[in-house]
Predict the structure.
Amino acid sequence: MSQKSIIDRLAILADAAKYDASCASSGTAKKNSLGGKGIGSTEGMGICHAYAPDGRCISLLKLLLTNHCIFDCHYCINRKSSNVERARFTPQEIVDLTLSFYRRNYIEGLFLSSGIIKSSNHTMEQLVETARILREEHDFRGYIHLKTIPEADPELVHQAGLYADRVSINVELPTDSGLVKLAPDKNAQQIEGAMGGMKMAIRQAKDEKKRFRHAPRFAPAGQSTQMIVGADAATDADIVGKASRLYDNFRLRRVYYSAFSPIPDASAVLPLKRPPLIREHRLYQSDWLMRFYGYQPSEVMQATEADGNLPLDIDPKLAWALKFRERFPVDVNRASREDLLRVPGLGVKAVNQIVASRRHRTLRLDDVARLTVSITKVRPFICALDWRPVMLTDRADLRALLAPKREQLELFSA
């Protein structure tokens, strides 16, 4: 059989990497090649592949080392029993591709994952070697995100942190029972053990950096993980609880959610349909509530419906507010920052501006309207100098009034 060309393999392995959502590059240390030293940077603009929370556009070459795999996870299109076209890169080929794309200003970094070929240790060695060549032989200073393999030797996983800005270890599924059923080759304790080891290594590196100026950098952008949504029977309440424990136990920078996507020749244990993409979006919103708005996991769970899932027609923050109407309305001129963050329609930036502005003047409804996209959503939950919602907050049809209107798209609209 003839060897596939680089372009053919790139098409296969870039397409195979699209199912991995955890490729944002926020949190890395700023590096550049000013002064003629090194090559690459972690900043700049290019082809957009991911956005950092501060709004920076990060372009990443995102691909797999190989889509061959000795594991047989039911939900994975690259499982060993899957009838897909296979391809493989060598570490040097990925290095050449990365540098070639970077010099053309197509990318600013590399996101590299892989199927398991031969063994977990062999695959991890190949991933680490790719990053090592970029860093040590080419002095590449762009962003590198390595997807590590929890089944590999801990020393190999540790080496990944010495070369990568961010590392990630996927927990795959929200529940242990789901993992046993759908990914029999994986072990929940082994996955969390690897995450715990990475957490300790990151903490130790930070301590050493404080004491020793030239201490080696180690995964400065931290670690992340990813969960598949909708492949098993886990509810949104289960997923929120799992994400919260992961944040607390392993100090993760991000938990990513990936809606299950049906695959060719799928196992009979998998759902026939993919979950609505809006469910994935609601989980990201709930994640934001816990990370930036001060909500406890139990409070986010209170926003779920009777089936344990978040409502799809309204966001989790509004769902929580409608369930706890006795907490509203709040006075924008007197309420604490924590209470203002609970108001549907008010983001962190708007709340900070309200708190700063009311030191100098008493705020009216129009003042609040200038700080938010939709004052209609905010009005039932606040009081201002010239506004009180009276009975609006307690209306039985308030949810219907605030839910986004569904619109039928026109096939031939201009």
